[in-house]
Amino acid sequence: MKLPPHSHLVVIGDSVTDCNRARPVGEGNSDALGDGYVSEINALLLAAYPARAVRITNMGISGNTVRDLAARWETDVLALKPDWLSVMIGINDVWRHFDAFRKSEAVPPEEFARTYGILLARARPRLQGLVLMTPYYLEPLKADPMRRRMDDFGAIVRQLAAAHDALLVDTQAAFDRILAHHPSTVLSADRVHPNRMGHMILARAFLDAVDYAWAPAAQDR
């Protein structure tokens, strides 16, 4: 597995990451990590790789866009001195384009790419590893306007991952695999915020990217 022993992983993003994590810093017991995919990742790492003792900090904040990440990047990422960083942002950046009451908060794709790229450039030299998770929309119809825009932002994240030597987690592809067989209501009530099954899919996609194995080498057990 790519996460080294005793490494520190910081996970940052919006409400999908936040999931009621502890404030001001989501770290400590399992409740401190919230009730979403970050907690699932922590549990699965402990179950299969107890000897690695990976430390996880959840710094997600509900409602965040890439602009919000920029405002708190120094305190909530760089100051925590992570060895590994995982970022999932973009859902609200897109969603605001379709929200009649909050359209002023919508982030254009050019601004999203530019701001995100600046943040990654500041962090990458300090990191052992970087994971970028695409935004997603739980809508199987690719012609749907919000799904189409979300795919555009996902493509930007893919480009940023290549430019900054990051592992890419294609969350949309992970969900599409399920949506090929089940309606979106199996995963979410609003096509954005996942239920427990949805969070497990996110956790699995992340762990696949870092080469997690259910039967790790003897020294990791």
How is this structure best described in words?
This protein is of the alpha/beta class. It has a single domain, classed as 3-Layer(aba) Sandwich (Rossmann fold). It is built from eight helices and five strands, in the order βααβαβααβαβαα. Strands 2-1-3-4-5 form a five-stranded parallel sheet, sandwiched between helices. Helix 3 packs parallel to helix 5 (109-123). The protein is globular and about 50 Å long. The two termini are 12 Å apart. The model has no long low-confidence stretch (mean pLDDT 95).
Topology:
Blueprint lengths: L7 E6 L1 H4 L18 H12 L6 E4 L7 H11 L7 E5 L2 H5 L13 H15 L5 E5 L11 H19 L3 E3 L1 H9 L16 H14 L12
Parallel strand pairs: 1-2, 1-3, 3-4, 4-5
Helix pairs in contact: 2-8, 3-5, 5-6
Short summary:
Helices cover 40% and strands 10% of the residues. With 221 residues, the chain is an alpha/beta fold.
Structural class: alpha/beta
Order of helices and strands: EHHEHEHHEHEHH
What Rg, in angstroms, do the CA atoms define?
A: 17 Å
Work out the strand percent: 5-15%
Main β-sheet description? 5 strands, parallel
Terminal CA distance? 12 Å
Give helix % range: 40-55%
Q: Please write the CATH class name.
A: Alpha Beta
Number of strands: 5
Please supply descriptive tags for the structure shown above.
221 residues; Rossmann fold; 8 helices; five-stranded parallel sheet; single chain; alpha/beta
